[in-house]
Amino acid sequence: MSTTTPSLYDGDRPLFHLAEEPHHPDGHSTMLGFWLYLMSDCLIFAALFAMYATTAQSFGGGPGPKELFELPLVALNTAMLLFSSITYGFAMLVMEKGNKGATLLWLAITGLFGAAFLSIELYEFSHLIHEGATPQSSAFLSSFFTLVGTHGLHVTVGIVWLITLMVQVGRKGLIPANKRRLMCLSMFWHFLDVVWIGVFTFVYLMGVAR
Amino acid sequence: MSATPAETHGHAAHDHDHDAHHGHEEPHGSFKGYMIGFILSVILTAIPFALVMTGALDKNSTVVAIFAMAVVQIFVHMVYFLHMNTKTEGGWSMLALIFTIVFVLITLAGSIWVMYHMNTNMMPMTPRQAAAQFGG
After folding, report:
1. Smallest Cβ distance to A197: which of B24, B52, B73?
2. Chain A residue numbers touching B112 (CB-CB < 8 A)
3. Are B68 and B33 within one domain?
4. Where is this region: Disordered (chain B) (predicted)?
5. Domains of chain A: residue spans and CATH
6. pLDDT tens, residue by residue, A66-101
7. Closest Cα to residue A156, out of A122, A106, A183, A129?
């Protein structure tokens, strides 16, 4: 390197070398990096929420939230996601104790609640489209499907990630790398629940209340 | 995070040393913490749904109440499920969160404000109104 980059030399001062590369423990910055990713994801949702807010009254002569949304269904959906949050919490607790079997069990339960959430959401979407309330009907419905659909897509990816990690934990056990991955997914999963609070308040409850 | 026997087991000795010195300090939840968060979330979800479904309050109070409870619930999730505090990652997580909240608020408030004014100033007309105004 010294022969190819002579410009790095400054007079007779030697090029500074560390005797030993500073050693960072493997994955020591993963959690912060993942948190920054979540924050940037938050900005995506902020843009989608803003879009929904500005088009929430643009029904284009089509049906509005009061005619379309079924709150009991949304309440059931919200319960599914909330249950999946607490069961993921239990998975993290047994993971800390190093109990592989229990971790896999709680992860599986979490995945089932997530799948239930998705099924209910897809049922709702198909029901809306069947009634003629398609994304093409009005600006309100376009932004509704985009916002709620993006959240649903995140949950789908979360479930795929969850299954992947279950396979990895099953094969390699609760090694530090797998624990780190489970902690990242934990943040992702709880983050999606936080976004859902915004969705059910801002989209569903506000839509029906006003 | 203090290095627990289970974690250091199988690490090389120098690795263990590093873990002990500048090991990450991921906050871990406790069973109690998760249960408190869960129960608070259930309450803070059930009340707004009940308010809207029964129509117990008038419209404006309902809207204010459900928004207030959403903000509190987001806070509960951040503390009890995401374990946010000012110590995590030497404060950088909190800094990123505060920056994001500011950005989100500007995005939301700005969009709603601007589009509201555009809507009022460029009021879309029904065909009948347009006919009356332009003599169509």
Report:
1. B73
2. 50, 53-54
3. yes
4. 1-26
5. 79-205 (1.20.120.80)
6. 899 999 999 999 999 999 999 999 999 999 999 999
7. A122
